[in-house]
Amino acid sequence: MNTYPIHIKPFGKSAVLVEWPFDIDTNILDDILIFKDYVKLQGYGGPEWEIVAAYNSLTLVNNQRELKFDEISAALHKLYKERKEGAKKEPRHWKLPVCYDLEFGIDLEELSQQLSKSIEQIITLHTAATYTVFGIGFLPGFLYLGGVPRDLETPRKASPRLNVRKGSVGLARKQTGIYPQDSPGGWNIIGNCPIPIFDAQKENPCFVRVGDTVNFYSITRAQFDLHTIQAEVGIDLLTKDN
Q1: What is the percent of the chain where pLDDT is above 70?
Q2: Carboxyltransferase domain: from which residue to which, for each copy (predicted)?
Q3: Are residues 159 and 212 in the same domain?
Q4: What is d(CA 2, CA 39) in angstroms, rounded to the nearest whole number?
C-alpha cells in the first residue's frame, strides 16, 4: 500500500481538511477512499460526522460541535500511520449515453480546429476512454472525471458562458464532466447526456460516487429524444457492470 505525505488544516470551526499530494492519480484516490473507510470505523462515522472525498483530499465535518484542531489533527495523523489496507471496494462501472450532435456539441467544430482532429476522431477518443470519478461538485451531482486522452486535453474557455444546458458534456484540460443542471460554465461542450445525474427528490440524489468509473457511448439525436422522454416518465436507463 502506498503511503503519502499528508497535510491537515482547519476548515472552519467544525471541520478539517486532510490533503494528499496534488496530482490526478488513481493510486492517491484509492488511498483516500481506504483512509475514509478506516476513520469511519475508528469513531468518525454516524450522523455526527460527514466525510467527503475528492481528488486529493478528505474533508471531515462534525455536524454537532466545534473541533479542537490540535487534538483531531494528532488523532488523524496517528490513524493514517496505523491504517491497514482494507478490502478495496470494486468500483461500480457506469455506461452513459451521449449525443454528439452539433446542436449539443456547440464547441466541437472549434475543438476540431484547435486539436487538428475531425469531429469523428474527437468522438471516438472520448468514447474509447474509461474515466474515474475523482470528485462531485461544484454543482450537486457535477462529476469530475479524470482519464481524458492526452490528444483531447484542452484548456477551459477563456470566457465562461452564462448558461450551459443541463446534461452538457464538457472537456477541460485532463477532465471531462456532465453539467447536472443549467448553469454558468467554462468547459468546452461536446455533447449532451440524457440521463439525469442528480435528482433531489430521490433518497440517493446522485447515483454515482467518488471512485466509480464511467464510459460514454454515442447515440443519435433520435435516440437522445427517446431517452429524454423515458427519463421524464421515470424509466431507468442506467447501465452498470457491477
Answers
A1: 95
A2: 6-208
A3: yes
A4: 17
